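Worked example 3 (structure in, sequence out).
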């Protein structure tokens, strides 16, 4: 009888490890953020069109993404996560904000890029838009 318990004690741990390895290997991993190229005006316009908008480029300006985001940016960061844009991965990076007037609407859009990649975006009504000053760098 003791030999039977010993046999199970020797077989059970490796069997459990194999089962755990199989289960873990079949679990779905969170999808990685897709990189959205935004090097050219054509790239940025194509992304706006995918969102259902046509826009006219009004301006562009250089910005520096803050290294740390203040609490006041929580809603903006949440929006970027919902859009699957990697804003927080580019903390401290130099980038460019492109501002568009959206056709058939009173809305404006801002696309934030760094290293030719779209890292942030938002639409807003200009009269309600508040530019936040983060460590001396304006970013919206």
């Amino acid at each position: 009888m003791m030999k039977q318990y010993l046999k199970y004690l020797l077989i059970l741990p490796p069997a459990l490890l194999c089962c755990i390895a199989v289960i873990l290997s079949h679990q779905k991993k969170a999808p990685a953020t897709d990189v959205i190229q935004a090097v050219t005006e054509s790239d940025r316009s194509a992304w706006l069109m995918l969102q259902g908008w046509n826009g006219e480029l009004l301006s562009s300006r250089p910005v520096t993404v803050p290294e740390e985001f203040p609490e006041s940016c929580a809603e903006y960061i949440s929006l970027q996560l919902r859009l699957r844009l990697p804003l927080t991965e580019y903390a401290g990076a130099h980038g460019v904000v492109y501002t568009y007037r959206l056709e058939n609407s009173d809305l404006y859009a801002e696309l934030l890029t760094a290293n030719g990649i779209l890292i942030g975006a938002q639409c807003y009504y200009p009269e309600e838009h508040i530019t936040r000053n983060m460590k001396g760098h304006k970013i919206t």
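Notes: The CA atoms of residues 100 and 107 lie 9 Å apart. The longest helix spans residues 2-26.
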